[in-house]
Every structure is written in C-alpha cells, then in structure tokens.
Amino acid sequence: MPMISGMDSEEPSLDQVTELFSVIDPIYGWLVENVPAELTDDAQAVRVSIQSMADTFANVDPETTSEDEIGMMVLMALMGAMGSDAADLETASLRLDTFLNRSCNVPMGEGPLAIIEVAGGGDEPPPTTEPPPPTTTVDPLADALRVPDDYATIQEAVDAAQPGDLVLIGPGTYHEAVIVETDDIVIRGTDRNEVVIDGQHERENGIIVFSNGVAVENLTSHSHTSNGVFFTGDYGTDVIVDGYRASYVTAYNNGLYGVYAFNATNGLIEHSYGSGHPDSAFYIGQCNPCNAVIRNVVAENNALGYSGTNASGNLVIQDSTWRHNRIGMVPNTLDGEELAPQGDIVVVGNHVHDNGNEDTPRKSADWDIGFGGGIVIAGGNDNLITRNLVTDNSYAGIAVADFPDVNLWLAERNTVTDNVVSGSVYDLFVLSFNLTPAGNCFSGNTFETSIPADIETAMPCDADAGALGESGGPNPGEFAVTDHTSMPAPPAQPTMPGALTEEARRAGAPPAVNVAAVRVPIPGDIPDTIGRANWADPGIEVRFTPGLLSGYSWLGPVEGNSSGSHGGRIVGSGWPPGETVYLIPCWGSYETFDPELCDWSSPMTVEYQVPADGNIESDFLGEQDRTMVWGQPKPEGICAIIGTNGPDEEPSTGDEVEAVLCTEPAWGDVPEFITDGW
Length: 678
Fold this sequence. Notes:
The chain is α/β, with parallel strands linked by helices. The protein has 10 helices and 41 strands.
C-alpha cells in the first residue's frame, strides 16, 4: 500500500502518526465527493481502514509509552486494519492512486495516503476541511499541429510543420494526396479506424514521403491509384531516404501497394495491416543495406503479402501473419530495379498460411507461376528462412527458385532451417534450372512432402551435396482474379496506444532484432502462445519465451541446465541503452486489461542496464512459479507492463517506453485446487 511505502522510508514518531490521522477525514471527504462513482466505495473502504488505525492511538500517552511499544503498535495497527481484506484494500488503494495519477498528475505511489509527507516532520500545518484543489491537467501534445482544429487539411499542417513537429489528425475522411518534404516530423491519427485518407480511386498516393526521419502512425489510407503510404528516394539521382516508420497503419484497396519503401534505409513497419492490393500489402525495394524491420503486421487478400525486389542487407521480417493471398511472401530479384540480386535477409517467426486465394486482385499474371506459395525466394541469395509456421498453402510451403527475367537469376546459398511446414502439395520446394544445389540447404524442418524428395538428405546444411535428381516447376494452373476496387473493407484494427499522449519520435534506425529469441509461432487455437507484445511503443520489441505452456509453471529448456525443467525468459530489442527495464504484474487478458489492476507497488527488475545494442534477455522468471510473480493465477489470464522510467528516471513524464504482454490461461478448466480462495 502507498501508506506502507510512505512510512517505511523513516520510522515515524507518534506525533507524525497522529498528525497523519487527523487529516484523513477531510482528504477522503474530498475524494468521496470528487472521484468517479465507481471509486466511491474504494475511498470509503480505505478511509474506514485508516480510521481504525487512528482509533488505536486515541488513548496513547507518549510520556509513558516507549518508542519500541509505539513502533509495535504501528505495526499491529497496520496488520489489524488490513486483516483478511488485505487484497481488496490493496486494490482499492491502487485504484485511487491511479485515479489521482491520471486526473491530477499525482505521481504513482504518492496518492491519497502520501498527500501528507509522513516522514517530513510537523512543520507544515494540517489541511483544513476545505477540499484540496485538483491539479491542472497539462496537455502533453499542446504544441501539436492539429487537423482540422488548427489546419483545414493534412497537407496544410504538413506544409507548416518544422522538424520535430507532430501533425495530429482528428477523426474524419480526408480526400487528399499528401506530399511530405520536411524531415523528422510525425503524422499521426487520433484513431486508426476513424482517421481515413480516401483516394476515391482518383488520387495517386495517400501519403508520399520524400524526407528523412518521417513517421506515419495510426491512420487508414485506401483507394488510391498507386499506394497507401509511400516512402521514396529518387530513382534517377540515387537520393536515399534515411529513416522511415509506419506504425498502426491500415492500407487497403490501393492500386499497387499498401505500405511501400523504395530506395530507403533505416526503416520500421510494424503493427500494420494491408489487404486488397494488386501487387503487395508491404513492399521494401531497391536497398542495400536496407537496415529495416517488418514485424507484427497482417497481410491478407492481396496478390502478394510481402514483395521485396532487390532488397538486401540487414532486413528482418518477423512475427507477422501472411494469409489468404495469391502468394504469401516473395523476396525476389528483377532487372527492372537496381541493386540486383536480392539477398541477405532473415524471415523468422512468421505464420504463413492458406495462400492460394483466387478471390484476390493482381497487377500481372507473371507471378501466378508461384500461385499458392507460402514463402518463395525468387532468384535471391544468402537468405535465412527459419522458425516459421507455414501451413495449408495450396502449392508450395517454402520454395527456393531460380527466376527468369531479362537475365536468369539463380537462387544461391539460401538456408531453410527449423520451420514447421505442412498441408501443401510440396511442403519444401526447389526449382533449379541446372539441377544443382547451388549452396542452398535445408535442415531441422518439420515437413511431409518435398521436391526433390527427401530434401534434407539431398541438400543438407552440414555436408556437401551432389547433383539433384529432380526439380520443381511453375504452378501450371490458371487462376481467377478480382478487381481491387470491389474488394471489401477490412474490419477495424487495433488503434495505437497513447495516440493522444505520446510525444513525437522521429523515425530512425530500427531495433536490433534478437533473432535467436524468436521461436516458431503457435496457431491461435492453442491458448497462451509464445507471447509477443500485444502493443508497444514504436521501436520496442519484447516477448515471453517459451511461454506459460504448462499453465502452472514457466517450463522449457534452460541452456546449461541438465534438468531442463524451467526456462521462462523475457527477451526483446530496441530498448534504450543504459535504461533499467522493469515488469509490473497485472490481472486480466488483453481484452480485459486495465492498468488500475496492475500491482504498481511491486515492480520487478528485468534488466538493470540495457546494453548498447538495445537487446534485453532475462531469466529471472526461469525458476519462478507463476504464483510467485502474479499471486494466485486468474482464470481470465495474466498481463505485464514492461517499461522504463525514461532518461530522467522519473515515471509519468512522457519519456518512458513500455509494452504490454498478455497470455491466456493454458490449463483449460481451472483445477479446483487452484481456484480455492477466489
């Protein structure tokens, strides 16, 4: 409780305790009159508990009572007041603390019981019976350029913006084609589903960015003749955009691409959605090194989910869903762009399933040779495809293929390892015009069918391979196509947390991904997946691994532990170097998550000092029974806030970064022995 945390910093005297109790009534009288109705009972409950402590001291004579006796009476009063309702009282106090923090800017832990500085002595007079005035709430985005409040159009606000500014767009449908030529600005919608840029199939791009360090956040862009959001350098002069980000963007039914980065480096595309595109939902092209990350995106009902022509070097595509497209993912080499051949990217931790959907648009029939492919490396080199779940794609699960364009581009030295693949005509597939392995290799995959047959023996990663006895070929089918202008609009997507409070952060280098920590995803019908963040501040990645798979303890292998019985870890990337990362345990699933039910009084340290590469990895959960971290397990699931206090080491000042992770219970019907006492 805040009272305990306020008193244990220095032993209080009897006079100080008496002074504290003397002002409880006016403080809580004000609370009862001013807090929301649902918190009135909380205020009363805490007040009654504190009053019972005051009664304990009513007849104490400080002249005849020793300090030891007074200290013991304080302890007994606290214990007696809390009694069997300790959890309820703790929750009530926490809710009040949170209300004062959010409504009056009172720091967490310094709420109703710490309005008085207990250990500070008796110099200050006690409050009168007049209610304390509420603290004025300061708008953290007071300097934002607001549309339509300050500027009638997005373009007007963007034109007025200076580097470092935030353009904040209110709900509405905007018929614009926004051009950005100012560095280091952030364009953000207040609600992802209510801030809509509609091209009406007449305007070319929803937003086109020619500048460095620009971020587009929390909005929808649809029905443009080319692209939803386009970050682009100049093809002719080799001008390269340096720094771009798309976070919480929905793009659908545009004429080419959803979110498109071309001739650009240092990028991050995350928490975004794309559907209904005749080319691809997400595209990164012509860059080397790309220095980019795509993560936590969903692409469905497109010609291609991801396309990456001649995109090479430090590009990671992770933790995303690619489904119901004609082809799921296609890193590829073409003569039509510079920097061929494509190579040196990582595709890890993705769920690629049910591709081979004819009810989709397409720009060209050329790609239908790979129709029904999950992950297709087309003429690319030195790529790593690892720990993906690839299921029920109609033709090939994972394919490595030579690709003819003006030149014949050979697929060489690609590694396909530790994927789980099923449900395709060929789970693993190689198309080689020369019937040679060309340095491509397969190992550790779970699969049933392949061409060449027994592919991990024919093309091993730990031995030399001879000539191939057979090769796959193009998909020979003919496939229907749909007009992209008639594709349905997608359902509402999760909006960006903190859209009205988060300070603008320029786009820059993406987080350094801890690839080794990313595991094969588990399908959604199995509860309590290996948990990635349900939401996170831009640039932050964090996960539980291997997850609460037992439902009662953190289980899984531990390196160097012969028993291998435990191993729950928290891992992530993109965290500010030098910061301390903490965990706050909370009750509830993501759907029911409420920060007021988090145990803010019991933070646990995940990483004392983030290293220079921004990666965190903590084993402190490895030997913990979950009940030691969250108390009793709850049937609806558990969550955690993982975050920092920011460079100033003070909470609630706007410079923090954080993420929320939630897991569903994995144990099905809750056993009776666990539910006792609920």
